[in-house]
Amino acid sequence: MNGIKRVFVIVLDSFGIGREPDAEDFGDKVCNTLASLASSPKFHVPNLRKLGLFNIDGVSCGEREPSPIGTFARLRELSRGKDTTIGHWELAGIVSEQPMPTYPDGFPKELVEKMEQALGRKLICNLPYSGTKVIHDYGQEHEKTGALIAYTSADSVFQIAAHEEHVPVEQLYGYCRTARKLLQGKHGVGRVIARPFAGSYPNYERTPRRHDFSLDPTGDTMLDALARKGLATIGVGKISDIFAGRSVSRSLGVNENDADGMDKTLKVMEEDFTGLCFVNLVDFDMKFGHRRDIDGYAENASKVDVQLGEFMGKMRGDDVLMITADHGCDPGAAGTDHTREYVPLLIYGKNIKENLNLGTYPTFAMLGATVSDIFDAPMTSKGESLLPRILKE
Fold it and tell me: Helices 169-182 and 109-119 meet at what angle, rounded to 10?
């Protein structure tokens, strides 16, 4: 036995720490999310610093910690993608050899026609669009005609926006389930997303009842491994959506912001369970990274860091905390897309070695292999467990 009962994996969505060698293959030249944040006067993360964030290989910004209290590493993405789904899947153990399809010019006409026939409604827009701008530009036409607003982004997504007074939320979810069944094979986008909105033109607002319908994971994951052993697999935020609900024993949605996500995680800490709590904090990416808001991103990181301090103070002797990311989204880079970056891995707990630099590893899947090994739950993965290196003797 290794003395570990609970593992908390917190994903700071898009918190990259520097350009990967193949970044140009993904359209990225200069990108470093962490360096952009460090340029902001609003960036203050003493707890992440204590864990070793600025001691990680390749990190040249920020102030290094003389004696980090955690084990730290740099992980490189092996999958052919830089999106949320592929990133989380790889963290959990799946390496995706093929990128998920994207549609910079909108979806092909034959697919749209097939979709309209299946849904019984016309689709309007069919372009990459900002989620707030698309309802402003197409909301009135939607209300007048009943056509659904269908759009995409730089990610592998198909999004349907509809006004809640004209299309009840459950009906919108039904349309998205139908779309999910159609979007398979070569058109197997990572996520179909329901985007309900409310209000009147020009002041439409998206409501918190967004729902993601993900592609089923294509391989074995740490969630599957723990579920096979009957252990808890608690998802906070959009974890259940990302894994299509598979092997998630309980899901706690986040309706407010990342502070709400951390509050829910702190409440999970009060429970007695054996297994994994897997957390996604999406505001970093959705509210600040894509919008290229350096100060907003930095301020959000600073707020989360305060809650991390509270979390660490409440950890039990048999708890382990792992902090990582799923890709980059450099708010200082050109464009609005994700960025192909290394991600941090910070590991902390009473049973974990301190001030240990693990160096750089070739896949995010090291995390999933380590979690499954902690619970002696075998899984199939290209990742290798770090447990023998990080566990105190």
Answer: 130
The mean pLDDT of 217-246, rounded to a whole number, is 96
**Domain 6-99+216-390 falls in which CATH fold?**
Alkaline Phosphatase, subunit A (3.40.720)
- 212: tokens are 């993601």
pLDDT of 7 over the 90 cut: yes
Domain ranges (residues) in the chain: 6-99+216-390, 109-214
What is the third-level CATH fold of 109-214?
Alpha-Beta Plaits (3.30.70)
Q: Is the peptide bond before 202 cis (omega within 30 degrees of 0)?
A: yes
Alpha helix segments (H runs only) across the chain: 33-38, 46-51, 84-92, 109-119, 131-145, 169-182, 222-228, 239-242, 258-269, 283, 294-314, 366-374, 387-390
pLDDT digits (tens, 9 = 90+) for 83-111: 999 999 999 999 999 889 999 999 999 99
pTM: 0.92
CA 206 to chain centre: 20
